[in-house]
Amino acid sequence: MGKVTPIDEEFVFEEGFAISQSDAEGIITYINSKFCEISGYTKEELIGSKHNIIKHQDTQKSLFERMNSTIHSGQTFNSNIKNLRKDGKYYQVKLEILPLLSSDGEVEGFISLSRPIDRKSI
């Protein structure tokens, strides 16, 4: 893979959060247009896909293990994360994943909210 360059997060996040929803297995069931804009994928490409479609190879496996453990236990997960766009560029976000619980407390899915990381924090 050639040189990977960042996108201009300030531009693409100008108007709101990137939002996605997935089922308990991580299959995307909803995506907002901001998520499509920042990832470079269409809604048709994303819905029905696993969230790891945007996983950047630099992200440590331990982060995903911690994330999965946290959200599957019904807790909210927060972290900075580097994601990969369809065109090979990357972007870094503050990510918050909230579990969606059934009336009996079982995890049924997740909602994620992403916003840009302040460049000084990268």
List keywords for this structure.
single chain, 122 residues, alpha+beta, Beta-Lactamase, five-stranded antiparallel beta sheet, 22% helix, globular, disordered N terminus
Topology of this protein?
Blueprint: H1 9-12, E1 18-23, E2 28-31, H2 33-39, H3 43-46, H4 61-72, E3 77-84, E4 90-101, E5 107-116
Antiparallel strand pairs: 1-2, 1-5, 3-4, 4-5
Overall form: globular
Helix content: 10-25%
Work out the radius of gyration.
Answer: 14 Å
Number of helices: 4
Low-confidence stretches: 1-13
Oligomerization: single chain
CATH superfamily of the domain at 26-89: PAS domain
* Largest sheet: spatial strand order: 2-1-5-4-3
Largest beta-sheet details: 5 strands, antiparallel
| SS-derived structural category | alpha+beta
In whole angstroms, the N-to-C terminal distance is: 22 Å
CATH architecture of the domain at 26-89: 2-Layer Sandwich
The proportion of strand residues reads 25-35%
Number of beta-strand segments: 5
Q: Remind me, CATH topology of the domain at 26-89?
A: Beta-Lactamase
Please trace the helix and strand order, writing H or E for each element. HEEHHHEEE
Mean pLDDT: 86
Top CATH class of the domain at 26-89 = Alpha Beta
